[in-house]
Design a protein that fits this description.
Structural class: alpha+beta
Order of helices and strands: HEEHHEEHEEEEEEHHHHH
Radius of gyration: 24 Å
Distance between the termini: 75 Å
Number of strands: 10
Shape: elongated
Length: 284
C-alpha cells in the first residue's frame, strides 16, 4: 500500500527553522511563484495579481499572496490549507525586508564583477545564474536598477538558497542610492483652457491662493506611498477642476506638477496622458 507523502517535508522543516530565527517565510511553486495560503485563494480567486506576487483583499489570514504571505508564526506555517503547498513546494522563499535584510540580486557575471568593484564585501549566496549579496538593513525594493541587478527587501520575496558565506555588512548608502530615480527633465506643456464664461473676473487670480494650491498638489504627489498613477491623475484632476476654467494656470505651474510626478517615477508620456484625461473628464 502506498504511503501518503509526509506533510513535514524538507521545505517545511527549513521554513520552520528560518521562522524560529525571525525570518518570514512562504512556499514557492515551480517558476518561483508563491501559493495562496488558504482554499479561498486557490486559483487566485480572491483577487490578487495573476502572478500571485501582489496581495489581494483576502483576510484568511490576511494578506495571503506573495511577500505579504511570509510569516514567522509556526501556527500559520502549519496552517492545514498550506500543508499541500509545503508538500508540493519547489522552494522556500522569504521576505528580506521583514527580516531586516536587503538582497542585491546579481543576475550574471557582469553584475557580479560590478558589485565586487563597487559595493562593500558582505555575505554572499550563490544562485542559479549569479549571486545574492545580503546586507543588514531594509529599504524599498526595485527591479533593474542597473543591468543584471535587482534590489529585494521590503514588499518583495527572495528564494532561500542557504545561509551563504561571509559576514553580513551594514546596508551602504550606495545601495540605497540605486533605487533613487533622478527627475526626468520636463518639457513644459502648453495648456489651452477656455476663458471664464461671461468674461468675469477670475475669482482665483491671487498669488497666495494659486501658490498654495500648486504646492499642496506637489506635496500630495511626493507623499504618495503607492498607486502613483492614480494619485497623479486625481491630483491633476483636482488642480484643473479649481483652476482649469479661468486661465490661472501657466506653463510654469504645469511643469512643477509634471516634475513632481516624474520624480516619483512617472514618465513624461504618463504625465501628458494623465493631464489629457483630466481635461477630458472635466469637459475642457
Amino acid at each position: 500500500m502506498t504511503q501518503p507523502t509526509p506533510i513535514r517535508g524538507e521545505h517545511l522543516t527549513t521554513a520552520l527553522a528560518l521562522a524560529a530565527s525571525g525570518v518570514p517565510v512562504l512556499p514557492l511553486r515551480a517558476g518561483k511563484v508563491p501559493f495562496g495560503n488558504c482554499r479561498t485563494c486557490t486559483g487566485n480567486a480572491c483577487g490578487g495579481r495573476p502572478n500571485m506576487k501582489t496581495p489581494g483583499p483576502c483576510t484568511c489570514p490576511a494578506p495571503c499572496h506573495g511577500w505579504a504571505a511570509a510569516t514567522t508564526d509556526p501556527a500559520v506555517i502549519n496552517f492545514p490549507q498550506w500543508a499541500r503547498a509545503w508538500r508540493d513546494a519547489a522552494a522556500v522563499a522569504y521576505h528580506p525586508g521583514g527580516a531586516g535584510v536587503t538582497v542585491v540580486d546579481l543576475d550574471n557575471s557582469e553584475a557580479i564583477a560590478w558589485a565586487r568593484v563597487t559595493l562593500p564585501a558582505t555575505r554572499t549566496v550563490p544562485t542559479t545564474r549569479g549571486e545574492h549579496w545580503l546586507y543588514r538593513g531594509a529599504m524599498p525594493s526595485a527591479n533593474a536598477v542597473r543591468p543584471g541587478v535587482d534590489i529585494k527587501s521590503t514588499m518583495a520575496y527572495a528564494r532561500w538558497l542557504g545561509s551563504g558565506t561571509g559576514t553580513m555588512a551594514a546596508l551602504p548608502e550606495m545601495v540605497r542610492d540605486l533605487v533613487v530615480k533622478d527627475p526626468v527633465p520636463v518639457r513644459p506643456v502648453a495648456v489651452a483652457v477656455p476663458a471664464l464664461v461671461g468674461g468675469g473676473k477670475c475669482p482665483h487670480r491671487t498669488p497666495t491662493f494659486l501658490e498654495r494650491g500648486i504646492a499642496m498638489a506637489e506635496q500630495r504627489i511626493t507623499d504618495a506611498a503607492g498607486a502613483v498613477h492614480n494619485t497623479v491623475y486625481e491630483t491633476f484632476l483636482a488642480v484643473l477642476s479649481t483652476h482649469g476654467r479661468c486661465g490661472c494656470l501657466t506653463e510654469a505651474h504645469t511643469a512643477r506638477l509634471f516634475t513632481s510626478a516624474q520624480a516619483k517615477g512617472e514618465s513624461p508620456r504618463h504625465c501628458a496622458d494623465a493631464w489629457a484625461n483630466a481635461l477630458v473628464r472635466l469637459g475642457l
